[in-house]
Amino acid sequence: MILDRFRLDGKVALVTGASAGLGKAIASALAEAGADVAAHGNSREPEATCEGVRATGRRCLAVRADLSDREAPRRLMEEVLAGLGRLDILVNNAGTIRRAPAAEHSDGDWDHVLDVNLNSVFRLCRAAGRHMIERGGGGKIINIASLLSFQGGVTVPAYAASKGGVAQLTKALANEWARHGVCVNAIAPGYMRTDNTAALQADETRNRQILERIPAGRWGEPEDLAGAAVFLASPASDYLNGHVLVADGGWLGR
């Protein structure tokens, strides 16, 4: 049955930035499809996410780490393997944004955004990919990119650079690991209703301009990524490698 290829029974997933927003929706969707989930949080406890996962009958491990710390990815992997025994699916969703005109963008803001949005993604991919290759049987890595993987944005130079890097890293890893059955793909969300876009939503002029550009006529909701995440985590996408799937309500096609 074709629908069986979207099931994740017996799989273990790690979702970073799973306390709220996109990560929480993705973690919940993976659990509904049958996966056990390690839900990562940084400033917030991911316990609410774990409650939702456990309500589906799946196991959930709450893990905390500051991803600007270069040692955090290694410790996260060790904690997930110790708590859930294996890792089949990695979703690199955690991210941050610092807004300032480029001429005034500080080194500290630049370094922090690149550390969280790109450096930790590479280190988590490296750790997960090594585990999946050594164990055999393949795996799925899903990186959360952005519209700014394709466009430059305004007053967010570090964010744009980091998300451009995520898209290219996704392709580079797919080239190396596809032969091992490890599929590395990305989702590029458009304007989503999350904490990271709260300032834009609150700006009446900018909010109107954004909505006028989106053919769907609305901001995306975290649940709008759920189906894409399940697809890319499941056997239904076994022949997809190095793809950046845009979920933007039609923004890039306008």
Helix-strand topology string: EHEHEHEHEHEHHHE
Number of strand elements: 7
Give the CATH architecture.
Answer: 3-Layer(aba) Sandwich
Instruction: Tell me about the largest β-sheet.
Output: 7 strands, parallel
User: Could you tell me how far the N terminus lies from the C terminus, measured between alpha carbons in angstroms?
Assistant: 37 Å
What do we call the CATH topology? Rossmann fold
The total tally of domains equals: 1
Number of helices: 8
Q: Strand order, biggest sheet?
A: 3-2-1-4-5-6-7
Structural class designation: alpha/beta
User: Per DSSP, what share of the residues sits in E-state strands of 2 or more residues?
Assistant: 5-15%
Give the proportion of residues in helices. Answer: 40-55%
CATH class: Alpha Beta
Shape: globular
Low-confidence stretches: none
Task: Provide the CATH superfamily.
Answer: NAD(P)-binding Rossmann-like Domain
Q: Radius of gyration over alpha carbons? A: 17 Å
